[in-house]
Amino acid sequence: MTSHIADSYHYTDMHGLAELRARTQSGSAEASDEVARQFEALFIQQMLKSMRAAMPTDGGLTGEHTRFFQGMFDQQIALDMARGNGIGLREQVMRELTGIGADAGSMSTGVLNMPVHRIPVMRSAIEAAAMTDASKAPEAATVKDAARAARAGDVTTADGPWSPGSPQEFIRDLWPHAQRAAKALGVAPEVLVAQSALETGWGRHVIRHGDGRSSHNLFGIKADRRWEGDRAHVQTLEYVNDVPELQRAAFRSYGSLAESFADYVNFLQTNPRYRQALEVAGDAEAYVRGLQAAGYATDPAYADKILNILERGTLSDILATLKSGTLPPTS
Fold first, then answer.
1. Quick check: 189 and 182 in contact, CB under 8 A?
2. pTM higher than 0.90, yes or no?
């Protein structure tokens, strides 16, 4: 049977794209698949555009008309590739849109469990498409294989900012901060580690400033008018009526991991809308579902993704190992 959504699949049909967006509100698998294909086409198109820009401009084939038809040709190539097997991006986007994530314990695939606004490959492609200035945020720094002991302050290496190379390093570095914050909130520290793992891809994709500085924002807290501290501006995907929508937002920036945890505690305790979630903080599932119900994140699968990290065993297994060594016991 011919897909009605597929009828809208043409890069010059703006009405068709609007119709596609409206149909995705149904939440059907067909609509999600088409959204993923459209995004992959956009990514491929920007990749081709960057390749063209890197080519020499001298010669007789660089006129305005030539560039115009080359652009149309590249757009059609992008659509044809996305209609076929693509480059593998569609499958990742589909997993995110349908709330089906990979094992959170894997650093290579755990990013698929992230909330929509924190998918690094999406952020990279969208910035290329929607930003023309030099202030766009780069990807997270290259992971360095260096053992680090947990301590109260920020964590750095000889090679640069904090960038854990594994879930074990991520948990070890955050655990003391999570314990203190959890005690103040009345929640299990494992829940806070799981939430920060979801928001940052186990520390590999912490929001960064345009100059590469880390925001140390572990919980995806945005900077509203009340925030007087530093800010990091990035492109994000937010859900509006259950439909992902591109937005540019400012996120709070901190000087250390400890500051991020402290502000998370203050953010929840001073916001009346999170009162009900804090009242059930002793129940991990009730707590994270309470956060979602109060509007902490727009991703409709946000709570499920946190619980998925908690329940898969990776977090508890690593904690059991680390507690027997250098980590302090849960207070």
1. yes
2. no
> Is 238 marked active-site?
yes
Q: What is the CATH number of the domain that holds 256?
A: 1.10.530.10
Six-digit token pair at 217? Answer: 């924002």
Range of the domain at 48: 6-98
308 close to 99: Cβ distance less than 8 angstroms: no
147, 328, 291, 185: CA torsion to nearest 10: -140
Residues 191-241: pLDDT tens digits?
A: 999 999 999 989 988 999 988 899 999 999 999 888 999 999 987 767 777
Q: Choosing from 238, 283, 285, 304, which is the catalytic residue?
A: 238
C-alpha distances (whole Å) from 286 to each of 197, 199, 274, 290, 302 are 19, 19, 12, 6, 13
Q: How far apart are CA 324 and CA 120, in angstroms?
A: 34
- Does 263 participate in catalysis according to the annotation? yes
Among 175, 183, 189, CA closest to 284: 189
